[in-house]
Amino acid sequence: MAQAWPKAKPKLTQEAFDEAVASNIEDFDMARDEAIKSAIEEFNVQGYDLSSVVTEMAGSDLDSHPIAVACRGLKDALKDEGSLKEALAALSASLLPSCTDAPADEGAQASTSGAPAGAGLTQEASVIAHKGEAMQSLLEACRRLQGQEQPEELLQALRLLQRLLSWLETRDAFTDAKGVELIHELLKAEGSSGEVRVAAAAVAEAAARGVEEAKCRLVDSGTVAALLQLLQAPDAPLDLISASCGVLRSVTTADDERPPSSKAFVHARLLSKHHAAIRVLLQVLRRVPAAQEPATACRVLATVKTVAANEEICREFTDDGGVVACLQLLRECSGRRDVVRACLGALRQLAHSDTVKKLLAEAGAVPAVVAVVGEHEGAEDVAEAGLGLLGNMMLRQPEIAALGAEAGVPDLVLEAMQRHAARPAVPRQACLLIRIMVARSPELRPAYLERGAEALLRAAKAAHPNQCKDVGSAALRDLGLDNYND
């Protein structure tokens, strides 16, 4: 029987929440903060979705909030009842106190309002701005400002729009408001400056995050194809590369759990087949000076990882020299943890292909991975990615497993299990790698057993049963040990 999708939670209205807070204050003599906390707990227990409720200002006049006032001011300016420039500045100023930290992602652009354009907003600010139709007003402002010789106001509108799109409900409404079509126009317009295109791409990336409909519209409209065309220019600026890679990665990532399926794989295949996406990314990777611009290089590598979604695409990248280029970058930037992690991640995805496994082995990837993981011995993310890459390379490849044994992989694996014992990601990859190495090569068992692998595997199972019990038992079994399920 097919598994039923969970029913969506009913959305709580602001009026119902305000009434509950007022009742707590009046009927139970609660202080305001206590009344709000109690109402939140009660509605959560009842299974309501509170994402559209302004909780901290329950019972207050939201229409008088500075953000609501600024939203009305922008609407008035669009009716020629005020200065659009001043209205944009007022909205920016009203949002600034509610900005959260910028997301931990490479290539965030600086904002004219004093906060990073990649910064999001608190839920309170997002709800008020959404109720005030700020996103729709900003789209209209962008259309009106498009084509002006001085793009400062258009840039400010785009950066404000990017910030508003940190909230899911605003992103959901973006496609209905013809936001994708506007982005496409800005990217394709001959008069658009490089700064405008970068800002437009950043808006597209923000809009696609967690919203399948936006991803599909960006691909179907030709917006992503337009970005790939721009990336082919030899002088494409680094900030455009960074923003464009963000869009490509978004549309090839399945991160919206609401629809029954995702087209992320279809998008990766379509963009590579009809728009040479993987080849364009390789051209870009070769142009980016990774030592001087590591953040941009990491974004390109992360995009390679999501676009290389099947054997055909991996082969195409490999045939053009992409795997060798990534391995060379790994060696050249071995001291940079962020670039190393990104290189390992891209190669790990590519190594699902049997052709890539063998090419990597011939190019000396096994000792190179052992070296970089050892160089960053305290970095859990590097260890996890490195062990994962080695596991993919050695899967169904006993010849490569033998190379791994000669290169010191057993020592690396067991040292990583000891060093990162408290975090499940590394022990899990270690269990998988041990099993992969010895399953078809029983002669490699002593390399692990003589170094104390049994005790470490059993400890990993006990410490992390959800993540390591199954793979740990499998590794113990393939090592030839009894009681592997204990």
From TrEMBL:
The UniProt record lists the keyword Repeat: yes
SUPFAM superfamilies noted in UniProt: ARM repeat
Coiled coil: none
Positions annotated as ARM repeat: 222-258, 321-365, 364-408
Gene3D superfamilies listed in its UniProt record: Leucine-rich Repeat Variant
UniProt keyword list: Repeat
PANTHER family documented for this protein: ARMADILLO REPEAT-CONTAINING PROTEIN 6
Name of the protein: Armadillo repeat-containing protein 6
Organism: Edaphochlamys debaryana
